Amino acid sequence: MSRSVLASAALLALAALAQAQTPPAPAATAASGPATAAPARPPVDPTAPKPFAEIIKGAKEQPGLFPIWRKDEKVWIEIPKEAFNKPFLFSVNVANSVGERGLYASQMIGEEIAEWRRIGNHVQLIALNTKFRADKGGTQLALEQAFSPSLITSGPAASAEHPDRKSVLVDASGLFLGDIPGYSTRLEMAYRLPFAPDRANSHIEATRADAQISTLTSRVHFATPRIPAPPLTPAPVAVPTPPQATPDPRSMFFSFVYNLRALPEQPAAIRHADPRLGHFMESYSNLGDDLKANPRVHMVTRWRLEKKDPAAALSEPVQPIVYWMDKNIPAKYREAVKAGILEWNKAFEKIGFKDAIQARQQPDDADWDNMDATHASIRWFTGSDVGFAIGPSHKDPRTGEILDADIGMSDVFGRGSRRFATDDVPAGSHAHDHAGWTGPRGGQVLADQFCTYMADQASEFGFALDLLALRDGMDLDGPEAEALAQAVMKDVVMHEVGHTLGLKHNFRSSTTVTQAQLKDKAYTEANGISNSVMDYNAYNLPLKGEPKASLTNTTLGAYDYWAIEYAYKQIPAEQEAAELARIAARSTEPQLAYGDDFDQGVGGLFDGFDPRSNQRDLGDDPLAYAKKRLKLSQELWDRVQARKPQAGEEPFRARRSVAEAFRQLGMAAHNVSKYVGGMQAERVVPGVTPVAAFKPVDSAQQREALRFISAGLLSSNSFRFSPEFIAAQPLDYNEWAERGQPLSIPDAVAALQGRVLDRLMSAATARRLIEQGSLLPEAQRKGAVSLSEVYGTLQGAIFSELKTGAEVDRMRRSLQREYLRRLQAQLNRSTNGATVYADAFSLARWHATQLARDLRSASIKPGLSVETRAHYAESLDLLDSMLKATLTRS
């Protein structure tokens, strides 16, 4: 039988079987009319989403931008059909954390323009790429092909389309219980352990929605299966300990606040940044204009502030900038926080805005969280190892418009106002480590967005209270100490609010106030102690016998008014370019001097070479201030040693006072070292600014700084403590982590002096000293400070005993070893040859040869102690090894 016949027979059999299994149609009746065949039902797809109504049955709706539906522990987000492929602002905040190592509550993370996309039944939340644009010319398609967006999160559609609204539901748990913020990277940086989110023990804990925003707070559990056993032998690089602030180091919870906020329908007007002022910027590359050599566009970040009455000299704004004060702020500090916020109204009044800034108190019984993206806030948080404040904001990447800001302030002043701020904050916990802070999804925060002002204020606050208590008998629980705490609180709030208004740091403004003005009480009360609250201003502590003036900043400075004017002044569009140029052209006025984080120094290539741009200096002569800081530290040390301990007081009080003085002096040592090989940098706009971009620091000032370093910071006589005082300092036998070792003054001195050596013996300083002659007129080159002079002066001061024949005490032996260690690094061709100029290498080797010769002569002199002779022999052996090694040629 043929295949076709068999196939026909099979089809007939199947048809007969189907007919036999089909139930007979009901008989036709007169009422129903003639019989008709029943329509065939479409096959059911078991993978198809369930009907919308079936999913939300019994659920409660929160109407809003993206409606939120809740039923028991289930949460869905409704996405209207028209909302797909429509951009909105997506941002993340951290409401709850673990309280150590950079993992703190009340922190903003980042923001992106995002949109929902649907591919079949799969829904994606996509971060759009705003780094590259085509403002004119070019095509959007070319950019989309060249530069990829990023996936934030995704999941299947949880429902079929709503029959009327055509919207779909997505399961919020599936979208927002993962590691969207990249916290696994943060945890690995902090602990070097592989923590990962645990969805099974995570949930959506809170939701809110209105016409402008939909907010979801996810309580996410992070865990690691096990804590590795300690290594059998010490690791060459110290390994961080596992988490200390959680009951079980393997487990911790975070609350992430996800904000989905509508973008302004009408984008704000942009304002282009000018490098002569310090504003945060939203930047992108404009690839649509090939006529400009530099495609980068920098927009000032600022709030949208518009007058209700544009013609009025002074008008209320259409929408004021409102800061909500967190209910966790202690009641006794609320007025100081409010005063710090409202102080900025002075700058806005000067450009025609009345009550541009408002401060509102969150009620103590409020059940809403001000971490959502529609409440700018001042939040109060705690941590086991923290003392800082931070002023971040979220912007519209299209224009730079600030849409939200959440200032976080730790409770360090609550603790520090009654005793030393460092009592509960271990030394070094707020170090200037820019790389230790990460942005969205693990990306690093830029150096100019990192702020340690409150941490530094807390540290200096302890120093000031201690000195004033011991000098003047100030009662640490009395009204004078409380008034200082309130003033410091206001100062910190002014600084952080300035950040959220779009202002960067200005580390040069403190040098625009004279020493005489700083001693004038009337002047400082009216004008503050610096021309900007955006500087890290030191306390205006007088020496014994000097007149007393304001200790800290009390009001805005001239620079703050200027920066606000540039960013916020309302200017007709046709006049804007000319008016902004006029405002920026005032940069040469002394009171408006500006220098940012990179001018001050952030490390690496940007080591900071202008001694006028510093943290924690004060007055128009930073070198004089460094000398004053040494005298203040010495006074505190003398008074601490003379003070009799009281029964029941904290056992570490005296040694912490000693440490505070060393910490403050360490910053001064860093600042004064910048004079040597320093350059004065000006923000020059070609053809506009009538000054040179760079000018070497005056040679007389460089030599004066070298003399102070040699005679003051490198001298053992500057750090004298009685044996009885050192022996009397106890340990804390109740706290293992705090027990530590007996107080060691030589170790503290070595750390301070090492900071000076690192600066003066660096490749960057050598390069500037070698090249500064090329910036000087011919007549001035002969008297310029040379690299050989610096190396010779430094080496002569450190090894002065070789000429005097004196014994070398422990502190001096430590200093000399630190010098030789850095000299060895300079002479190591394999590791340093590419970074040190040939002239610097040869000069370092020449001075090392002279030192070896002097050591040989000194080591045979009679009468030296065995310690000094052994030290000389060790040093000479090390030098000989260095010099022999450098003779090897590749």
UniProtKB/TrEMBL annotation:
Origin organism lineage: Bacteria, Pseudomonadati, Pseudomonadota, Betaproteobacteria, Burkholderiales
Q: Which Pfam families match?
A: DUF4953, DUF5117, DUF5118
Q: Which Gene3D superfamilies match?
A: Collagenase (Catalytic Domain)
Residue ranges with Pro residues bias: 40-49
State the species of origin.
Pelomonas lactea
The superkingdom of the source organism is: Bacteria
The positions making up the signal sequence are 1-20
Q: Which InterPro entries match?
A: DUF5117, DUF5118, EcxA_zinc-bd, MetalloPept_cat_dom_sf, Zn_MMP-like_bac
Q: Which residues form the DUF5118 domain?
A: 49-95
- Which regions are flagged for Low complexity bias? 25-39
Segments forming domain EcxA zinc-binding:
480-803
User: Which CDD domains does the entry link to?
Assistant: ZnMc_MMP_like_2
Name of the protein described by the UniProt record: Zinc-dependent metalloprotease
